[in-house]
Write a structure and sequence with these properties.
This protein has 509 residues and is mostly helical. The chain has one domain. The chain has helices at 2-13, 16-33, 40-47, 56-70, 74-81, 90-101, 105-138, 143-161, 165-179, 205-223, 245-250, 252-267, 273-287, 299-323, 329-340, 348-351, 353-379, 381-386, 392-411, 414-432, 437-460, 467-470, 474-500; strands at 182-183, 190-191. A two-stranded antiparallel sheet has the order 1-2. The N and C termini lie far apart (74 Å).
Length: 509
């Protein structure tokens, strides 16, 4: 039955307008992901205002295509020019650029393409298979369980966002504070509006996302003088050379291991494609068959981070659809698209006949996005590389234009434009003082969901806070949240102890 429903989804994806939207999304995702200073999250953010007049299906197809393509196309600039368009591309260039310098750039690009194809297709298949069972589990969620799930997502975002947990926690608290602005959904009282009428309806997610990721990034680049390395013109023809079947079989363990890591970490809120790419590379360097050769231009160093990054996208999409919990900045934007169209993601999406086709269309678009991005990457590589020659000043002006026009188009209000500017300045300050943006955005997105679940639990259980720890679902999630916060602290204490007392030293007299 699930297979038949998925086929119905493919029929919808191959409708002319949806195919056009998918194609545009893949082009945008490839373009923004290879340009330093942009990135896939900004690409998704800038595309969000264009979905206002669309139906929900093409809107999510567009954003999902940008997301998938953005995890792959950065390999072009990383391998050929040693310029990571995204932080997730850094592990790949250690071996990819080295292989290219050794005279095999086409082979390096071929390994990246095959890795993206395998990681995307396998993880999408696994996630589609798990969608039904996860939906049945999610239907059993009560208010304490939803709060515990949100709490787990926020704690993992803090633990994984940056090197400084303190900065991550502060960023999260700012996002939670922003989410409380407006009228309380339970008691109907105004909070933190300061008599300003535009704040009574709360802060729109579009304003937070576009301001923090879009305008804030431009302001940060202007503060750096737009000094971003530009590549030299390629003097040789760029192409793609696929690995042989024997070469693929030789690294089958790397492919399997990185796909599993990417899919599982994709389900964990806060573990975005960047974290997954670094972890996949690190595990390969620690446990791989040729771990001693990592960094010298071997295929495993390209395949591991690329498979992990692409596989994480499907992992992020299922919790978003089934639980309504975004696991990364890009999925937070996709959640905003759902909410803008009056659709609340959750377990009822698969159970409600009126939304079943929509969900299966989105699931089918994941497969179409993976195949489409690989075809475009193979045939249009020289066109994609030309995007790198766009001057940074012109690029920044275009981004600012899209940010401000998109903000005004939301409700045709100049107040929204000013709010974008406010969050743009806040995003610049976050970048300047090394505060991660992802916890703040996730806090603003998940805050209302968590607050509503918390208040309903307190009201229904007579203010007994132990209700969060005694449930069969909420209890393990709360325990996992504590571990998510405790593990980085324990790891750093252990590392500090090792530095103070190196192995092999003695303290005797």
């Amino acid at each position: 039955m699930a297979f038949i429903n998925l086929m119905h989804g493919f029929v919808q994806v191959f409708q002319p307008f949806n195919m056009l939207v998918l194609f545009i999304g893949l082009l945008v995702g490839m373009a923004v992901s290879i340009m330093p200073g942009l990135g896939l999250v900004m690409g998704v953010v800038l595309a969000l205002p264009f979905t206002y007049r669309m139906a929900i299906e093409p809107s999510v197809i567009l954003l999902t295509a940008i997301y998938f393509a953005g995890t792959y196309a950065g390999c072009f600039s990383a391998i050929l020019y040693r310029i990571p368009g995204e932080p997730m591309d850094v592990p790949m260039l250690w071996d990819g650029y080295t292989m290219a310098r050794r005279g095999a750039p086409a082979k390096a690009l071929g390994w990246a393409l095959v890795a993206a194809l395998i990681g995307g297709l396998v993880s999408s298949t696994v996630m589609v298979a798990l969608a039904g069972p996860m939906s049945e589990v999610a239907l059993k969620f009560d208010s304490p369980d939803y709060f515990a799930a949100v709490f787990f997502g926020l704690t993992t975002a803090v633990a994984l966002a940056s090197k400084s947990m303190v900065n991550s926690l502060i960023s999260l608290c700012v996002g939670l504070l922003v989410s409380t602005i407006g009228i309380d959904s339970i008691y109907g009282t105004e909070r933190f509006t300061f008599g300003v009428p535009i704040l009574r309806d709360g802060v729109q997610l579009v304003e937070v996302l576009v301001g923090m990721y879009g305008l804030g990034e431009v302001l940060a680049r202007i503060g750096q003088g737009l000094r971003i390395q530009q590549p030299q013109e390629m003097t040789q023809k760029v192409g793609t050379q696929f690995p042989t079947l024997r070469e693929l079989i030789a690294i089958r363990i790397t492919l399997l291991r990185s796909t599993i890591i990417g899919t599982l970490l994709g389900i964990v809120p806060g573990a975005g494609a960047t974290v997954t790419a670094f972890i996949s590379y690190g595990i390969e360097k620690q446990y791989g068959r040729r771990r001693q050769a990592m960094g010298t231009g071997i295929p495993e160093g390209i395949v591991a981070p690329q498979v992990g990054a692409t596989a994480s996208v499907a992992g992020h999409m299922i919790p978003l659809l089934i639980l309504g919990l975004p696991g990364s900045g890009a999925t937070a934007v996709i959640l905003a698209a759902f909410l803008l169209h009056g659709v609340q993601p959750g377990p009822m999406l698969l159970e409600d006949p009126s939304t079943t086709l929509m969900v299966n269309t989105i699931l089918a678009s994941m497969f179409a996005s993976v195949l489409g991005m690989c075809l475009l990457g193979f045939f249009w590589i020289r066109v994609v590389i030309k995007v790198l020659t766009v001057p940074q000043g012109i690029l920044s002006a275009i981004v600012v234009l899209f940010c401000l026009v998109g903000a005004y188009a939301n409700r045709s209000s100049m107040s929204d434009v000013w709010m974008i500017v406010v969050f743009g300045v806040l995003g610049y300050l976050f970048e300047k003082f090394k505060f991660p943006i992802s916890p703040m955005v996730l806090g603003a997105v998940l805050g209302p969901i968590g607050e509503t679940a918390f208040m309903r639990t307190m009201i229904g259980n007579g203010n007994d806070w132990t209700a969060f720890f005694t449930g069969s679902i909420s209890g393990p999630l709360m325990a996992a949240s504590v571990l998510a916060l405790a593990y980085p602290l324990f790891h750093r204490l252990l590392a500090a102890r090792r530095r103070t007392h190196p192995v092999g030293t003695t303290t005797g007299h």
